[in-house]
Amino acid sequence: MKTKISTALIIGSFSLPVLAHTSNNGVTPFIKSNNPQYYIYLGSGTYAPKTKVTSNTKAILEKMDNDLSINDFIKKEKKPNLSIGAGLDINQYLAIEGFYRYSSIDYKIRETELKETFSANEFGLSILPSTGNINNSGIKLFARLSASALITKFNEFEQDYSGLALGLGAGIQWNMNKQYMMRAEYLHTQFDHSFSDVVKGDNIDGIQLSIGYRF
User: Fold this and answer.
1) Which of 52, 92, 151, 176 is most deeply buried (CB count within 10 A of its CB)?
2) For residue 11, what pLDDT band results from cuts at 50, 70 and 90?
């Protein structure tokens, strides 16, 4: 896991602009034309895996002679996700992307030092239809349809799960100039896997903010 994260961070570092020098037309040496088609980005946010108790656990809780719920025993702490991607604008209304995402959430048993981590790694492809540049403002609205190889790990149950996951999303992109862009989007990945008779995975979702470089 540490090796994957380290590799992702090294790759992600190249998504940050490294030259401030500009030529007379405001385009850096990395820009191939006045209308760049390729881009790379680095993102983070609240995108994280979720869990829910199984029907068996719900039945046990219902039989308990008190008003406590599972949330009274467990505290959830989302960790900022990491997202790295590269894309191609096929035209002003359609783009394709490849991406890597790492997300995790910690579960702490209240009044104790016990902590378990549920993490997910995704390697995927997305298609992004959009409105195109709205009134030459540099702003466009877009949707996202994704397919990814998903690898999850839940320390508590010492179980790994891997499989194909489908996702969707929607957001807004601002091309600040020919080089830099910013995004805010909602991401959702379908995930449903029982790790035990007690708990099961229940999708991955959240808000993500990104900054990108066009070339």
Assistant:
1) 151
2) very low
Rounded distance, CA 114 to CA 110, Å?
A: 8
Joined tokens for residue 85? 């991607």
Q: What percent of the chain has pLDDT over 90?
A: 50
What is the DSSP secondary-structure string of 13-68?
HTTS-------TTS--TT--SSS--EEEEEEEES-EEEEEE-HHHHHHHHHSSSS-
Give the span between the Cα atoms of 147 and 62, in whole angstroms: 38
pTM for the whole structure: 0.74
Q: How confident is the model at residue 199 (pLDDT cuts 50, 70, 90)?
A: low
Contact 105, 79 (CB under 8 A): yes
Give the pairing of strands 38-45 and 74-91. Answer: antiparallel
Work out the widest C-alpha separation in the chain, in whole angstroms: 75
